[in-house]
Amino acid sequence: MMGYIVYFIVLLILPIWAQLKLKSTYGKYSKIRSTSGHTGAEVARIILDQNGLQDVQVVESRGMLSDHYNPLTKIVALSSHNFHEASVAGTAVAAHEVGHAIQDAESYAFLRMRHRLVPIVNISSNMSWIFIMIGLFSSWSNGLLIGIVLLAAGVLFQLITLPVEFNASSRAMDQLVAHNIIRNEEERHAKKVLSAAAMTYVAATAVAVLELARLLLIYTSMNRS
């Protein structure tokens, strides 16, 4: 009983806490102007050019915290506030996304692995719960097993995402310091923004792993009976 309580606490509370932490931290440091005076777009362009990535474009993206790097189009997309404003949060986020562009240019192994898994996960994530639900309601253990295997692909994707994101943040901090874009207390503040963002990935991975473990226990119990 206690195990189920802990499970549901992690399942429900951890992702919500991580999202609230990110919004709170980002909201705080998005209001603090960076001493360099560079907008997120300018920060991204500076770091890209300093790393010989003139072919990577920096564009504006709609939606809050919609920032991302697209390896297929070689585009760093920054949400409107980060693109136009000179804030500590925007500086950190822009550098993080450029960190992914640098990973791509250097053929970072975990990033390549994640890219290869994308088409597989797009299919397996939709199919997995069909088999899982059929297996659970009909007591068809083989159907449940198929669903678990399909779900495992998504869990693997989440696990691989962690080193990709942490490495991008590490690269971001190195670049910001090396090119004198952030100074003094800003370095600590930028780390807080990146750490809060990373926690959302940690929370998602923890939930995915726990759910996979729960289904494996059900499958094992089903076979025993």
Summarize the structure in words:
The structure is a single chain. By secondary structure, the chain is mainly alpha-helical. It has one domain. It has seven helices and three strands, in the order H-H-E-E-E-H-H-H-H-H. It has helices at residues 2-29, 40-50, 80-84, 88-105, 109-138, 141-178, 185-224, and strands at residues 57-61, 68-70, 75-79. Strands 1-3-2 form a three-stranded mixed β-sheet. A hairpin with a 4-residue loop joins strand 2 and strand 3. It is elongated, with a radius of gyration of 20 Å.
* Strand ordering within the main sheet: 1-3-2
Class of secondary structure makeup: mainly alpha
Query: Care to count the β-strands?
Result: 3
Q: Averaged pLDDT, please?
A: 92
List keywords for this structure.
three-stranded mixed beta sheet, single chain, 225 residues, mainly alpha, 7 helices
Summarize the SSE layout with pairings.
Layout: H1 2-29, H2 40-50, E1 57-61, E2 68-70, E3 75-79, H3 80-84, H4 88-105, H5 109-138, H6 141-178, H7 185-224
Parallel strand pairs: 1-3
Antiparallel strand pairs: 2-3
